[in-house]
Amino acid sequence: MIELREKGRVRIEGKLLLLSGLHIGAGKDSVEIGGIDNPVIRHPFTGEPYIPGSSIKGRLRFLMEWAFDAIRNDGRAWGSDDGQPVDPNDPVLRIFGNALKDWKGGPTRLIVRDCPLTADDRKRYSEAPDRFFEEKTEVLIDRIAGKARDGVGPRRTERVPAGVRFEVELVFRLYDTGDGGVRDLACLNWTLLGLWLLEQDALGGSGSRGYGRIRFEDLHLVAPGDVRHALDNRFRGHRFDRHTPPAIVSAEALFPKAA
After folding, report:
1. Which of the ends of the chain has fewer CB neighbours closer than 10 A, N or C?
2. DSSP letter string over 118-176?
3. 3-class DSSP state of 221
């Protein structure tokens, strides 16, 4: 049995700025004449748009599975069943969790909270809620005629427009698995690098058509004891090395008394 002891938890806090319209769908139970085909998800009580933590975590996992060359031939998530190797040091399985019966690497490390509007944008929403949604009309093009295909009407997709900001909070649990917490510190740094991958990719649906371009702002890592470390651009611009992560955050920054 692997030795397991929690060393502490850190928070990653900041803002998420939309650089292009974001669509994270809410589903639709009925069809309305003249209505939106694909509405965005809203808070059930306030009607405000928000970003589910599962959307960010799922996209991060997708990007990091590719970065770690952990893509299964059946297209399923890495760690979704027992048809693969079980390595307690596997970063994807440690960071994001898994459904492996023989897993002995401890609990899921990464928690991603739902992202509400920032305080400033919540105030603006209360004054003019319609400005926080836009309609994007798309059509299917006839490749021969070079125009909208007859019989296939335009589809109207709802988006949260560029310029809207959301609050971001991620929690990372660090465990000592007999190595003094070295492996989980590496996993934390890979997770921070994953945020850079997400900025280069897209969040939500239709990313290949320009949707969901985002940027993180004012990111801070809050170490045990509520010690804040500005991340600024430290998590950007690194080459992804699946063997050795960049030292974005050091052990000394997280646990100065133990250094």
Report:
1. N
2. PHHHHHHHHH-GGGG-EEEEE-PEETTTTEEPTT---EEEEEBPTT-EEEEEEEEEEEE
3. strand
Distances (CA, A) of 185 to 57, 68, 211, 233: 19, 17, 33, 19
SS3 222: strand
Label residue 150 exposed, middle or buried (CB < 10 Å: 0-12, 13-18, 19+).
exposed
The pTM assigned to this predicted structure is 0.89
Mean pLDDT for 205-217 is 93
Q: For 181-195, what is each residue's pLDDT tens digit?
A: 999 999 999 999 999
At CB < 8 A and 24+ separation, what contacts does 193-197 make?
Answer: 193/235, 193/238, 193/240, 193/245, 193/246, 193/248, 194/60, 194/63, 194/64, 194/67, 195/12, 195/60, 195/219, 195/235, 196/235, 196/236, 196/237, 196/238, 197/60, 197/63, 197/64, 197/67, 197/240
Cα 65 to Cα 72: distance, rounded to the nearest angstrom = 9
Residue 161 in this model has a pLDDT that exceeds 60? yes
How, if at all, do strands 165-176 and 5-18 pair? antiparallel
Q: How far is CA 152 from CA 22, 37, 38, 39, 249, in A?
A: 24, 14, 16, 20, 52
Over residues 57-78, the mean pLDDT reads: 94
